[in-house]
Amino acid sequence: MGSSLKVALVGDFHQDGIDILEKNNIICEKVFDYSKENMIDKLKDAHGIGIRTIPLFSDILTKCNHLKIVGRHGVGYDSVDLKYLNENKIPLAITGTSNAVSVAEHVLMMFLSSARRTIFADKLVKDGKFSDKTLVKNTYELFQKNILIIGFGRIGKALAKRCLAFEAKVFVYDPFIEKNVIEESQCHYIDFKEGLSLADFITLHLPLSEKTMNLISHNEFNLMKKNCILVNTSRGGIVNQDALINALNNKLIFAAGLDVFLPEPPEKNDPILVTENLIFSPHNSALTLEGRKRMSVETIENIVSHLNGNTNVANIVNKDIL
Ligand code: NAD
Question: DSSP code of 267?
């Protein structure tokens, strides 16, 4: 590997990944100023680009004449111009094996925090109201509950295993996965509407697209049980935020947890931020220390192996162009 190769890393990458570039004698350009002028300046002669959440579209990509591969630090790629990459036969890699467990554990955290009203209970103790514990009423268990997983890919599968360990009954809606694959995982295949109406807990693990935008909106909340807890760690927009606010304010469901928003970050005066029985995290469900290390390493391995002529095809989104 010659030292003339250059990889630009846009955003903060864990050192374990950066070490791989050093070992391969590849020049590493770290980019933290995301202005268009600086991005073009730093990316224009890069052979590989590693990108976190900053959008990467044709306004910048058209200037990158040496580009051989783009590596996303994560699995969602709605922030990258895939059409441009396809047209120019540039592969887009994702970190397919890095973050499923981190997100699955985050969903469980949100299920349990919502079901046990952790934030309310914590405040009670801090406010000196320990003896008012009966105010924390109607808390729930996962044991023997119906859990609906929408999207049975890497994260959905990792979550199913963990829900089964709680002795919950796991239902899956994913029209692109064979019924027997779902049943082999000790889960039950279910139709979308039926799933919504029997679930005590619902979680979403599918990509954002024109088809999945507003997948969960007013009609869907009307089908849900009053004790239902909904968690969205997939993408903002898949759950319609106005419909969610309405569902919580009118007690159509019990509680919800959001890691993702539309837009991100939410506006300061967004009514979602003051809606009750909602817990939030700032799109960080994959960002455990272990997850960040794995994603940095996998992103950079994807880039380096491709530049070395040894592409990890399993992680390439647009395999057709290879
Ligand atoms: P994946 O590609 O392994 O699985 C996605 C699954 O969704 C597939 O099985 C697919 O068949 C299914 N699907 C597609 N359209 C569907 C529909 N209309 N109804 C039901 N199922 C449908 O992806 P993954 O690694 O499991 O990640 C899922 C999503 O989670 C990603 O697309 C990404 O947007 C999001 N994500 C968020 C974070 C975060 O930090 N919050 C981290 C990782 C991934």
Answer: P
